[in-house]
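[Solved] Which block belongs to which protein?

Original post:
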Amino acid sequence: MSDSSKRRAPLVADKRYGGKKTSASKAKPKPKPKAAPKKRARGAARRKSAPKRGGILGFFRKVLGWIIRLVWTITWRVTAVIAMIIGLAVAYVFTTLPDVTALLDGRAQGSVTLLDRNRAVFAWRGDQFGGAVTAGSVSPHLKNAVLATEDKRFYQHFGISPRGVASAVRINLREGRGPLSGHGGSTITQQTAKLLCLGVEYDKDIWETEAAYVADCRRGSIARKAKEAIYAMAMEAKYSKDEILSIYLNRAYMGGGAYGAEAASQRYFGKPAAQLTPAEGAMIAGLLTAPSRLAPTSSLERSQARAATVLRLMNDQDLLDDAQTAHWQQNPAVLSDAAQAKAGGYFADWVMSTGPEFFTSNTTEDVIISTTLDQRIQESAEEGLKWVFENKVREGSQAEAAIVVMSADGAVRAMVGGRKTQVSGAFNRAVQAKRQTGSAFKPFVYATALDLGYSHIDTVRDEPYCLNIPGSGEWCPRNYTNKYYGDVSVEWALMNSLNIPAVKISESVGRDYVRKVASDFGIASDLADGPALALGASESSLLEMTGAYAGILNGGSSVTPYGLIELRLQGDQEPLMGSGGGIGERVISDGAARELIYMMEKVVSEGTGARAQLPGWEVAGKTGTTSAAKDAWFIGFTADYVVGVWMGYDNNTPLTGVTGGGLPAEIWKETMSRITQGMTPRPLPAFTPKIQPAPQAPAAAAPRQPSRQNNRENVLEQLLKGLLGVN
């Protein structure tokens, strides 16, 4: 049997794959490689075809690539680290921020609001804060004006504005300044952070003054700017946009002592911030760049010009249409009556000085002070002074003047301390200047004599008269006219301001008693010891002298001049303190006071004070001119008011052709003619003299003894009572 019959049948697998089993001796075909992606193939072809770069060019190329990769690696890692640090810093500051209501009033000092006798506001002192406002409660015109001026992208940024900073740097460089000098590009949020001093509160142990603290808060270094940016971003995370704007509107200084929109609105326009017109809102917003220089109380013209620019910015940003912009630019905001009065001038300064410092200049509370000021009378005094200097004084004169208007009880109704009336903190010649009084002192010599029994009809001999002054030698007073008039009545001697009779009477009744009467009437300055006391050799202030004359008008009782009626904290109904002035103890009898008023009326109606005559009114007063005419006085009164006038130079230069009966009397008349407009004349409280017998000649050159019923014992008794202070 052959072997062929034993062959096995082929496997099914061979048929399935359609292949035949090849001989072992045949070479297996090489497997076909898979096709590579076209891109990789092209890259490989290029690498195969491109010659290899070697040498120095290839080396630098490798180094440059390595540096770029290194810088990129470092940059993103450093950036990540910085971002993490900033994030942590922002998160930390976020945790330190208080509730928004605690940040609205950031004043270190309180405020003082002064009210006149009709309870109308006439002056402010300290840091004014009218009350908290919100971005939603203020006038939309004010809000729009602030955004247009300070940060038009306020509602889009996250606390800082890179575009704003870049723009500010570009402007600063173009204008030749340093990149951070001048324009800062700060957002409202950053400005608010600065107002908050980045959360650092004032500590007197660290900063010597509050001004140093504020200056430190306003520093513009790069480190400070970085801290400011972090604080701003934390505020953006903590507060809403309107809350941040509210803080800004309450804390920003807006000139004139006003902090915040409400205080500024009340200070300048006498209305709430919710009622501001576009012109008023633009004026307040315009103050934010330079509040002291642009304040309307400093320069209304500058403030109005700045407001016109703000209105244009509002128009550019479609916050006002063209018609509205044109209307409000043509009708700019104007100040309220109280704001036009500036800061209350000399009177407000004086009232502040009479109250306790912890409730006035150094108050940390908001204080309301009611005063005696009558703004109509104040305006009359200022206008009267101005009229005389414009019409009666040579142009360019540096002479000064002061006026005090007072009621008979010592209530000061007006005060002018110098020719520049719209001032604050200036030298007050009505209070601070101590000047010789001259013959304006003589009424107190005659008050002493009348109280001791002298009569207006008593006579004294006017003749050459000398006294030997121990340590000084002989002193011989002379009359202003250098004439002598023989036997004259006491009334005539005062009416014509004779010096020798005044000295004789003073020596007769005793200098010590004259000094006591004058002091009891309120002349607190040191009074001369020698016989020149009778001629006004002592120095006094206009306020003291006017107050002393008020004592004569009220019937012989002393007065303490006062301007403060009551002081209370804002919001309280009960006052913390009341008036510290008014009528005091009696100095001379009512009869003596009435007789003296009668004599002083003759000074105006027939004597040296004739220029002070007021048609239809009874006026009493006295002129005064010091040696070398360095000071000129006229103090007079009607039944309603006492008005004192002083005139002179601050450096004691003699006045040229000026006496108390001249320009001071004319200032008095111009002031009183304005004060009495619309008033009904009232008679002076003077006595009506009986028919007078002809005066008798005195014995020798000495003054006559009293011709009243008082005998010498009564005179000595009165003198003793006066010296002992017994009524």
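(Second protein starts here: sequence line, then its structure tokens.)
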Amino acid sequence: MNQFNKKYNSVKIPTPPQKSEQTNLTEKKNFQNHKQNISVSESYYEIEYDACPIPGVGKFVLKSQKIDPPQKDEIRELFYQMRDIAREDRYMNYGRSELYDKQAWKQNSRIFYKQGMFMKDFEDTYENTAPFSSYFPDYQMMGYDQLRTYFTWRTKVRKGEITFISPSYLFLYLYELLNNIGVDNPEDGLHKIMSAWNDFRVYYESMDKYILKWLKDYHIYYDLPWTFKDFVTEHNLGSHFPQVVNPENNFDLYCSISKYDIRKSGFYNDDTVALIRDCFDFVIYQLRETFSKHQLVLDNLLFQTAKNMIPWIPFGNALFYPGLRHPDKQVVLSEKEIYVRQQNKWMFHSSITTESGKKLIGYLLKQMEATLRKATKYKYKLSVNINSLSPMTIDFLNQAGMSLEKLVTEAAMEFYREATKTVVKVNPEALAKIRKEALLTQEKLIVPEIMPEQETNDENILSTEYNYPEKNTDVIQPIPINDIDDPWELLRNSFTCLEKEAILILWENQRADPPSHTSETVNIIQFAQEHNVMPEVLIDGINEKAADCIGDSLLDGEFIFFEDYIEQIKGMVQFIWQEKFPQE
């Protein structure tokens, strides 16, 4: 305890020696004189060691050194001037992307437009490449190396040299084109947008969703010498703008607003895509016709017209400043998409798809698919519930006395039957070969008539019994051509008995008043088969002889006599009929 109570004696701290006032004034005066002798350019001291008697101790040696002024960077100075433009606007809100408010977005777009016009003709040849990544890129957020990288790349692109670059640089270039920065006119700007899209969409697939929207806005905002529909058709973009190409009735348009997108179904594939798309167009057409008969309009259940026009801002998700004054105008892309510009402000009028309308379109697509699955014997069935429709739609259809399930099913089946109807296509070369082989076969099947004076030593032939037909249907006695002046008489005498029988049958089938001796109509195909002859070969034989005698055929591809020769054929038929029944 005593060690903690020990007392210590105080010790006085010695004070530093005080200099006299005269000494302080002398040192201060020496320092002032030394300071005056130093030039402005002398800003470095050298310390020399071993120059003092005390080892390891150095002393200051004052020596003047000239410092060269920094080399002037004209490009950097240009960037400074560009950045000064931003200082004109106090309201700046960079780097917040989606959190922009309208005022900040408008101001930043205005700054971007002014800076872009200031730098529109600048070219660069920077050798390095600085990385850059940002949403809604602009000049103000870019550093010196990034700016030089961008302008060097832009210089190459304008000269047709396409090189890979960060997407942020690419979108900055697209913003310039949307504002018509660095282009001759709106047509030139659109051409460069399309070129950039075609050149870089291979690298950046996300470009499509932006470019497609901007292309439509570009045609709305700028005055171009063609319509947007013509542009879409020329560049094969109809699948992206179905409501523009076919505003009345289009498969893609309805799928995009439907509660059920059939394009995502397993039944929708390369083998069925054409069938499904065409079938839906037919179903919608049939439904419109049915509704019209009931004094109703199908679109009234699908769409609802907006009561008031709403403001429209061109080129969403892009830095765009409408700096130019434009005259008032109206742009009608479709019945459901109208844009109006008044006093340089844009308004939009549209038809809105109701919730019940989306459900109705989904039901139509699903019921149609279920019908086609059943018709094509698809391995999986699809169940459809009518209660998926809104109660308002169901009540409306019940009051109108229409069964939507029945209407869609019948229309889909009708289309499927027509689409899958068997159509026989004949290859002319193959048909000619078949005819030639058939003629050879026919010649082999013909049994020549053995004349009484004909002698033979072949016992097998003499012992064979032949069942000859009652009438000779193949062999005719030739008549010298020089003895006949009438080509129709020549034609009639050139026909075999089989061909004359065929002509009578064809005439009876075609004319409304067949001869009285025929009790029932005979089918020419059945007749040819009974005589072991192909119908085509039989008809071709008749037409070939007609071509030789009168210079034209008698029958068309459906075995119908040509109307041009009806009177001559009628006379020939009467003559053949008298030959067959001479007693009448």
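Accepted answer:
You had them paired correctly. Confirming on the second one: The first strand starts at residue 45 and ends at 48.
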